[in-house]
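Example record used in the benchmark description.
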Amino acid sequence: MLGKALHVWGASKARRALAVAIGLGMVMARTIPLAQAFPVGYGPVSPGTDWIVMDATTGRVLSQNNPYTERFPASLTKLMTLDLAFHALRAGRISTDTAIPVTAAAADVQPVKLNLVPGQTITVRQAMLGMTTLSANDAATALGQYLGGGSISRVAAAMTARAHALGMLHTQFYNPSGLPNPGQVTDAYDMAILARHILLTYPQYRYLFSVSSFMFEGRPIPNIDGMLKLYPGAIGMKTGFTNLARFNLVTAAVRDGHILIGVELHARNWSTAYSTMAHLLNQGFAAEGAGAGPMIAMDKALPSIVPTADAAAPRAQPVARRVLVTVDRHHVVIRHLVMHAGHVTQDMVPGWTAQIGAYDSYALAKRQALMIRGERHVGTARVSSVLIRHRRIWRAQLAGLNEAAAHATCSLLARHHQSCFLIAPRQENLAMR
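Model output (structure tokens):
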């Protein structure tokens, strides 16, 4: 343990010196690619693949290969951002329906993202689902900034402090998304500690990692973790990739009520990463004594898309929106459905809705909805979609209005020769214009 601690101190000192050097060399930072700061054979980009398999119940390591080699975590970072969110949810500082503002810094991060725009708001639940399914960097940055009181550096410091408190001695964070930073490192052992902590401490949020897709502003957001389809019993957890980090996996899987955690870092490609992970988990479950100890309770009856109620949000809240459409000769009949815990009800948003445009592009509809919301300062900007004769139409809407505000919105748009029509509360038959 002392040897490991000294190694951590030395590696951390080297990283800090490198970060200072890069920080002082502002011109060099703009002209020298990050890869040149870490030549092949050094630290995070040294050859080889590292892994560890851990019993979630006991913490026993079942197999490992170079588990203390420092690597760039890429989007595995989002597990720590989620851990901070889960902690805040438990403490009652936020709820899953808390509105998070999207800053320019969050909207401008590199893909993959939900294509959020500055000034938009998303809920904590949407941000978490965006991270666990698509690994959305804008959602992670927005959530991280909110948890850090508006500061990325502050949330990064909190993430690092949290990591060290959990015993993740090789881990340092500088952003909540996992986008490249020369000082942001971890190792396979540390990531296994984090995954185990999340699974045991916050079982009510395990469903987030198994969601196959969710609807966000009228479009399906898929889960990109291939282990969910390839490995029976996979709970999922996180994938991660950058050019220097290469291909990374944290996977939890359950068999006979017992959970194993696999971490794989710096794999050659996704095919190799997935097949290796499946092999490692199979070996782990077959190992003598694997799963010894009390079984971990699993919410087997819980639909994968439906969360259990948490203390901070006692009311059953919608977690996915679907649009059912039938078409006759003259009208489009649209029913918005919301999935609640255990049942499906019609989503009649309280108040009136002003439909303020129909577009071939989701981005254009979203821009229109947000623009009108910004001008009017009333209602909720919303985008929904409908399929007509094999053609997807995206509709910009301002929902949750009172009747006067709805009429005023359409009157304003009419004066500017823009399309708008009203949808009364509980109205289901909408003329398509």
